[in-house]
Amino acid sequence: MRRRTGRLRAAAAAALFALGATLLAPPPAAAAAAPNGADDYCQGQCADILPPGATGNATLMQILGNKLFGTHPEHSTDQLGPYGALASGYQSLTDDTLTQFFNDASFGVPDDQVGKVTTPRDDVTITRDKKTGVPHIKGTTRYGTEFGAGYAAGQDRLWLMDLFRHIGRGELTSFAGGAPANQGLEQQFFPTAPYTEKDLQEQVDAIRDSNGARGKQAMEDAQAYVDGINAYREQSKNGRYFPGEYVLTGHIDAITNAGEIKPFTLTDLIALASVVGGLFGNGGGGEVPSALALLSAQQKYGLEEGTKVWESFRERNDPEAAKTLHNGQSFPYAVKPDKAKGTALPDRGSVTPEPLVFDRTGAAALKKGEKTPQDPVEAPKKYKKLEGLFKDGVLPKGSFDPTQHRGMSNALLVSGKHTASGNPVAVFGPQTGYFAPQLLMLQEIQGPGISARGASFAGVGMYIQLGRGQDYAWSATSAGQDITDTYAIDLCNADGSPPTKDSTSYRYHGACVPMEKLERTTSWKPTIADPTAAGSYRMQVFRTKWGTVTHRATLKGKPVAYTALRTTYRHEADSIIGFQMLNDPSYVHDAATFKKAAQHIGYAFNWFYADSRDIAYYNSGLNPVRNPDVDPALPVKAEQAYAWKGYDPATNTTDYTPPAQHPQSVDQDYYISWNNKQAEDYDSAGFGNGPVHRANLLDDRVRALTEDGGVTRASLTQAMAEAAVTDLRGEDVLPEMLRVLNSKPVTDPALKKAVQQLEAWRKDGAQRHETAAGSHTYAHSDAVRLMDAWWPLMIDATFEPGLGGDLYNALTANLATDESPSAGHGPTGAHAGSAFQYGWWSYADKDLRSVLGDKVKGPLAQQYCGKGDLTACRDTLLDTLRQANAKTAEQVYPGDGSCKAGDQWCADAIIHRAVGGLTHDTISWQNRPTYQQVVEFPGHR
After folding, report:
1. Residues 833-888: pLDDT tens digits?
2. Which residues contact 487 (CB under 8 A, 6 or more apart)?
3. Ramachandran region of residue 556, left (φ > 0), alpha (ψ -120 to 50) or beta?
4. Which of 291, 804, 854, 921 has its CA 20 to 30 A from that of 458?
5. Residue 136: which of 126, 146, 124 has the closest Cα?
6. Residue 69, by phi and psi: left (phi above 0), alpha (psi -120 to 50) or beta?
7. CB-facing half-sphere around the CA of 111: CA atoms within 13 A
C-alpha cells in the first residue's frame, strides 16, 4: 500500500554451520556413484532450502536417542540452521553468500560430494550428497526412474506417507490412535473428500483412459512409484530398519518383528492427493456463513442498507487491493451480477450443521467436559521415555483444518529489464507449514522424459511439483478462487409424507431420490505411543447429485439441505498430467509452453515461471461456467437454470472457463503473490482482499527495487526476508492509528510513553526480530507487546458497538480479526510461521482513513470508529491503548506446552510439529515459504 523509498542493499554475511547428529541409520545398499550427466543451464545460480532436513524416517533406536540425548539421524535437521539464520542474516546478504542460507540446487552431485548411494534396481541409482542427503535419482529406463523415486520416498518419508493415506481415507484413529486431536483431524478431512474404494479406483482409471498417451504414462509412472515404495517398505521391514513409529503404534512387534506395514496402492495416491489438494488448492465453499452474515446485516440495517454493509465487508473487487497483475488487466470471473437470481438465503435461525459422527463407544462417547480416559500400555524399560509419544495426536491440534480458508506461499519475480544481469530473477516457494518430517520432500529426478529438481508432496512425488528444469524454474501460491459452490436442495420423503430437515431424500428433476450414504467406521486401542482408551465411532456423509450435504435449514419454511459442489471432487489427482508436462524438458521450453502445462492443473493455484529470458504467470483451476445471473458468493437454488453449464453429476464434470479467461501474463515488470487478489474483476472467494494485505509487504519492496533497477538474487531475497519479519499491522495500519491519537496532544504520561514506543518501532520498520542472532529478545519488545495487546481490543471497541454483537460475530466467523505470529487461532495455529493473511486490517485502515477525512476508494458503507467523529474515535483508541498498556507480558503471551508465559520470542517462534518421533530446535519467526528457491538462469537451450 505504501511506497518504500529506501533501497535494500547487499554486503557480506557470516558463514554458518549445519546441524546434525547420528545414532543409527539404515545401511546403504550400494557403493557406486551416479553420474551427473543432466543438462544444467543455471550454472550455479539456482539455490533452494527445505527444513528441517532430507531424512524423515527414524528407527526406534534413533527416536529413543532423540528423546534421551537430543541426537538426530543424519541429514534430518541440517537444513534447519541455515534456514533459520536468514531472519537475522539477510541484511548483509550478497549473491556470493546465498549458499550460506540455501542449498546449491545444481543438477547432479560432484564427485567429491557423493555420499550414500543406493541401487534398488539395475536401471536406477539414488545418490545422496554429503552436505544435505538429498536424493538424486537417475534412471536409464522410465520405469526404473519412477521406481527409484518411490524407493527414495520410502527411505525418507515412509511413516509420513502411511499417515497421510490414512488421513485421506478417514482412517487416522484406526491407524495411529484415538487421541482427541486425531479424532478431530479425521473428522475435519473425511467430509471434504468422502470416497468409496470404487470411487478411488474410478479416478485412477479415468486418468489412464481419458488423457491419451500422457494419461497412460502417468499411471505407469505412478505404478512404478508405488512399486518402489513397496520395495523399500518390504526391505526395511525385513531388515528391521523401518520407522520406529510402527512399533510405538502397535503395528510391529519390536522383539519378534511380527506385524505388517500394509502395501501401498494406486488408490492410496488418490487419497493422498485429496489431502494435499484440499489443504492448498481449494477455493470457495463458504457460502453458508457468508449468507448468515448477510442476513444479520439485513436484520440490523434493513434489506437495502444491510446488503450495502455486507458488500463493503465482503470486498469482492476492492479497487485498493494489491493485485498480482498490476497494470489494469481485467479477467472477469465469479463477478456479482447486477440483479442476482436463484439466491437461496435460509430462514433466520434455521441453519444447523450436518451431523457427522454417530454410534460412539468407549473413549469416543464422552459427555461434554469429561476428560478423555486413558489406558496406558507399558513399554519395555529401555523404551519408557517413548510412552505417550502421541498422547496429543500424531499431528498437534490446529495443524490442519481443511474447512478453514488457508492462504499459503509467496512469489517475487523481476523481469530481466530491471536486473543487474539482464536475466530474470525469482525468489519463490510454497508456504506449507512446519512439520517433522516435512510434508514436502526435496529430490532430483533424471530419466527418460524427466529432468527436474525440487519439492514434491510425500506420497505423490513421481514428479517434481515445484522446482526447476534444465533451463527454467516454476513455483506456485494458493489462489483460492471460487471452484466450490453451495446449492440448496429441496428435501422430500419417498413415501410422500411431509419432509423435515432430517429427511434423507431430495428432489432431482422432479423425482424424489435418496441421498447416497458414505460411511466410515473407525476404532482404536491404546498403544505405547497413544494411551487413549479404546473407542470407536461411525462417520456419515450424505452425497447427492448436487454435492455433499454440509448444512440443513428451512427456506421460506420449506426444509432444504445445503450441499458443497467442488469441481475437483472425483478429480483429486487429475493434475498429474500438468506436473508430468512441467517435468518434461521436451515439452516445456519457454513461457508459452509453461502456461500450457499449467492449464492441465485443476486445483486453484497461481503458477510462476522464470528462465533466462522471461517471467510468466498463470492462474490454474477448474473454474466452472456459471449462469451469469447467479451470485457465487451465496447459496443457490438447486435448479437446472442455476446449475453449472454442461454439468454431469455422474462424472462431476462441467464446462470450464477457457484458458484465455484465466489471469495470466508474460514479462510484466515484476510479479508478487502472497495469496492476494490476482487481477481486476477476478473476484475473491472469501473475505479479506482489501487495501491492507500481506502481499503489500512484498509489493512495496519489489516495486521500489524494480524502479531502482539492478536487481540481484541477493536483493530480491532481502526483500522477501525483510517482509518475512515485518508486522503488517505496524507497517500499514499503525500510521493511521497514530495519526488519530496525535490529532491532539497525548497528555497522560503512561500513554504518551506508549505512543512514543509505537512510533519508534514504526520508524524502525515495525519488525519482529531479535536484537542479535540468538538473543531470543525482540528489538522494540515493548512496542511489539503493545501492538499484540492493543489490536484485538481496538478492533472490538471500534466495530462491535456499531455493528452490534450478532453481525460482528457473523462477520468474524467469516474473517478472524487477527492472525499475529503469536496467535494460536486461525487456520495455521500457533508456531506455524504463516501470519497476517486473515484479519481486519483492511477494515480498520479504511475506517480510520475515512474518519481522518482521507480519500478512500471503496469505503465501508458505514463509519465505525467513534461513529465517524474523530474525537470520539480518538477516545476509543486511547481507552483501548490504556487497557493494552496495563497488560503484562504474561497476559499477552500466556504460554503453552512449548513456551513459558511472558516469553515473547518463543510465542512467535517456529516449532516444527512432530508428525513422527523426532523433534527439532525452535527457530525465530519468519513469514516465508517452507520450501524456497532462488533462481537466475544465465543460459537457455
Report:
1. 999 999 999 999 999 999 999 999 999 999 999 999 999 999 999 999 999 999 99
2. 344, 546, 547, 562, 563, 565, 635, 636, 637, 638, 642
3. left
4. 921
5. 126
6. alpha
7. 0
